[in-house]
Structures are given as structure tokens and as C-alpha cells.
Design a protein that fits this description.
This protein has 3 helices and 9 strands; from the N terminus they run βββββαββββαα. By secondary structure, the protein is α+β, with helices and mostly antiparallel strands. The chain has one domain. The protein is globular and about 40 Å long.
Length: 148
């Protein structure tokens, strides 16, 4: 496993677009050092996936699970975080393929840094959507999940 590095969730507010269906898409990805997952500028559904990620973090924090899965909506990518020992946890990054899940990288990170990164990305996303005066069920869920 690679040495411990800072986990960041990158969200670009200027890329957020509200589709005719009401879904909000935009660029969101993870960075560890100079490595981007799934890739730098990944286009997905940040409002939806950030809600999922916050729920998964809450579950890990509460000790409900020893591992949580963090999915993207688009593409075959996901990552898993093992319950922290102290504040250090293992993060495994995968791509699903025809023969199963391929481990792309495993990284040691501070659980507190991951939590801060996800919550910061959620706050940035919420602020950008509210600035554009967007209202949706998905956004309401993110706001509610973020507030917990």
C-alpha cells in the first residue's frame, strides 16, 4: 500500500449543469497527490453521489460496517474505505470489468481528511446550486444528509 497521502474530492462548480430531466451533472473526482480517480475532470452526478458518500461515511463513523463502498453513477468505478484504525484507513480504488473488479490503487489516508473532503465538496455543490436557484429532490436530500 502506498504511503499515506491527502485525499481530496474535487468539484468544479462552474461545470454544474441542470439537465432537462432535473438531474444535476458536473465534474467530480478524487485526487491523491497527482493521481485522479476515476480521472481528472470526471463528469458525473455530484449532488446524488455526495449524498451517498456522506451516508457511507456516517455508517463507518458509527461503527455500523467495517467497510463502505462509494460509487460513481457513471462508469464502472467505485472505491471502498475500510473502517479507520485510530484515524487511519485504507482506501481501495476499483474498476468493474467483465472478469470482476480490478484494484487500481490502494492508499492509506486519514479518515478525518476524507470526511472533511467529502463535506467540503458537498458544501461547494450545495452553494453553487443554491446560487443558481436550483431546487430538486436530489438537492434537498444532499442538504439534509449534509446537515446530519
Amino acid at each position: 500500500m502506498a504511503d499515506q497521502q491527502t485525499f481530496k474530492v474535487e468539484v468544479l462548480p462552474d461545470t454544474l449543469i441542470r439537465r432537462s430531466s432535473g438531474s444535476i451533472t458536473g465534474h467530480i473526482w478524487i485526487t491523491i497527490g497527482d493521481w485522479g480517480f476515476p480521472s481528472q475532470g470526471w463528469d458525473d452526478f455530484p449532488v446524488v453521489i455526495l449524498s451517498w458518500w456522506i451516508e457511507a461515511l456516517l455508517s463507518l463513523s458509527a461503527g455500523e460496517n467495517d467497510r463502505a463502498t462509494f460509487s460513481f453513477m457513471d462508469g464502472p468505478y467505485f472505491f471502498e474505505i475500510a473502517a479507520p484504525v485510530g484515524d487511519v484507513c485504507s482506501v481501495s480504488f476499483y474498476r468493474n470489468g467483465q472478469t470482476g473488479s480490478e484494484l487500481l490503487r490502494e492508499q492509506s489516508c486519514q479518515f478525518g481528511d476524507i470526511r472533511k473532503a467529502v463535506l467540503s465538496a458537498a458544501r461547494t455543490t450545495i452553494d453553487a446550486c443554491q446560487e443558481k436557484k436550483w431546487v430538486s429532490t436530489d438537492l434537498n436530500k444532499l442538504i439534509s444528509t449534509y446537515s446530519n
